[in-house]
Amino acid sequence: MTRMLHLCLVTLCLSAIGHIAGCAASDPPDVTDPELTPDELAALPDVADPDHAGLDALIAAEPPETDAATFDTDDATELPDVPVDVAASSAIQAHAAILKFGLHPRASDALRSIGVSASRIMQTIGNAPASAGTHAQDGVVNGHPYSAATDISVSGLSNAQIRNLLARLAKVGFAAWFRWPGHDGWPASEVRHIHAVYANCKMKTSLRSQIRSWLVGRNGLVSNTLYSFFHWTAAEKAVVRHKFTQSGEGTTNAGASCFVGGLYCGGDKISGDRNTLFRCTGTGAPAVVRHCANGCAVHPGSDDSCR
């Protein structure tokens, strides 16, 4: 009986997927996430995001980074989620001061815990004068405006160190991709960096779709192709999935692709019940106009309406 149990454990260990150093009884199973729905696919950003337009100038102005050795391992530990208050109560604060303007307090704590310094954070809320892409503001919490999306510099890092950083990011709740020009759907003309989305906060529809794309091993872009640079372990994906669930399906449409004041069916550029007509507010959750008894009709190029 003991020999048979040992054989079963060995078989389970050999069948594990990802970069696994050993086989622990506490490792979670590798869950098969469902592929993206048509609405989720439609919400994924394309590579022409206006918020990336100034990243090349930011990189050119960066001083040389001296922390590369920090990422020689993938060591990281998930942090407990601190309470936050969308009413901006001063009584609820993060563990430490915000690492950089535009970070959610939980994301700030998580980045600090894995050795990401403020100097490596290229942008949070978009640098574009009228940010309308994936880095548009998602909300305000504890008095801090934030975007769930963060761009991280990989200056001075080898590919091995970048892979370690990607693993660390997942272990503290980020779905993240190395945007390597000419690889995995990222154009050769675009900027080399890591794009990371913190999973446990309210965020725009496009970012929720990006996390779903990450969970199924894809690139988080409208092409939604398989991501080949790195593959996460079941345990790392479980952290992101758990934090994503904790976010309570909270969604904002601030700065999303909907036109402020326009009427949209749920799922058409904003989140919500597909049989409900919403007005895009641009500053928070979409406003309900009416529930459509006979369904909601999408009209590309003009306001949606009830049938």
Provide key terms for this protein.
single chain, 307 residues, 3-stranded antiparallel beta sheet, 23% helix, 15% strand, globular, disordered N terminus
- Quaternary organisation: single chain
Helical content stands at 10-25%
Q: Which residue ranges are poorly predicted, with pLDDT under 50 across at least 5 consecutive positions?
A: 1-18, 20-25, 88-92
Shape: globular
* Count of DSSP-assigned helices: 7
Strand content: 5-15%
Report the mean per-residue pLDDT as an integer.
Answer: 81
- Give, in order, the helices and strands: HHHHEEEEHEEEHHEEEEEE
The tally of domains stands at 2
Q: Taking strands numbered 1, 2, ... along the chain, how are they ordered across the largest sheet?
A: 1-4-6-5
Give the termini distance in whole angstroms.
Answer: 65 Å
* Class inferred from helices and paired strands: alpha+beta
Question: How many β-strand runs?
Answer: 13
Please specify the SSE layout and strand pairing.
Elements: H1 2-15, H2 38-43, H3 55-60, H4 105-113, E1 121-123, E2 139-141, E3 144-146, E4 149-152, H5 159-171, E5 174-179, E6 193-198, E7 203-204, H6 205-215, H7 234-246, E8 251-252, E9 263-265, E10 276-279, E11 287-291, E12 296-297, E13 305-306
Parallel strand pairs: 7-8
Antiparallel strand pairs: 1-4, 2-3, 4-6, 5-6, 9-10, 10-11, 12-13
